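just leaving the lab so this will be short. what follows is a protein written twice so to speak, once as letters and once as structure tokens for the fold. can you read through it and tell me how you think this chain folds. thanks a lot i owe you, the record is right below.

___
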Amino acid sequence: MKILYVITSTETGGAEKALLNLVRFMMGENAVRVVSLKPLGAVAAELKQAGAEVKTLDMHWYNQSRIIQRIAAEITAFQPDIVHAMLFRGIEYTRVASAGKKLKLVTTPHFDLSKKSFVFRWTDRLLKDLDTLTVAESFSTARYLVEKQKYAKDKVYLLPNGADARVFFPDKSLRERMRREHGYQADQPVFICVGRLAPVKDPLTLLQAFRNLRRTNLSARLIYLGEGPERAKMMTYIQENQLEPAVQLEGEQTDVNAWLNMADVFVLPSVEESLPLALLEALRVGLPCIVSRVGDMPLWVEHGKNGFVFTPGDITLLSCFLAEAAQSASRRIEMGENSRAISERITATSPQYQHLYQQLITGSFHVKTSH
């Protein structure tokens, strides 16, 4: 089977990480090519290291009009059995490029369309019927596509994101080693956020809430893993509020499991999400999770059981939950055990995609709907 993946970007993000995991799996039995609309990023380097063929269309704001033709040329040259597009521009441009061609087009949004502009939503609704199948990575996405975007029920398949239990797991020895290396005491409360330093992740709200926590708990620490356009603003805020000893911006890291094991609590204050991989990875490691009430996150974080859920942008409420998590190690341990139990619901998605592709090619795939 020949599979062509088209994605907007290969920078580090949830959709890009999902693509990386999927391509690594598919390369075992299939011919795979990845096309990134934008210049190649960190995930592209990992894909190449794994042996995948990766190309960029070098898209910028001034040359987007040519991108559709170039995607069409890639399809003609590669002659794939399956074209799988991800992220908004990757999906919409590939839809147009595939029009009139007899191929199987699969799309996976990996973003919350309800938060996009009217023009984006209108464009998506106009082109949606060009898909052979839309795979929704979260329940909230599937429901929005069917109810609001008027996708046909029999062309939307729910396959939630997954996190590999072989890669993300609790490891006490790893925790001890990481704490020694970074100078943290065994009982020091450490919070961690994994995600792009971008407005959609709202890192400044977390910084403000953490500053409030530090007024009563000077031993608390906060770690950010990720890069993005908000780094300069965050650095300024950290310096202005004398948070340098307590907040670490560690950039992009390859061994996220090690960093999660070093931490006590995972925090994700996003204003927009579908079902973030970072949350599922934290659940696998067994961390209590403090998350905003967006996307599918409240379905995985049961308030008061394995973490806390707050309204996006609510600094006061987030401050209170950080304080509650910081003050009781026994409560953190109990919540962490509940996260591990909840993580058993996470499934492996890549083998399911392999089966789905094969069924699409043979014409035996059907989405079950209730009437």
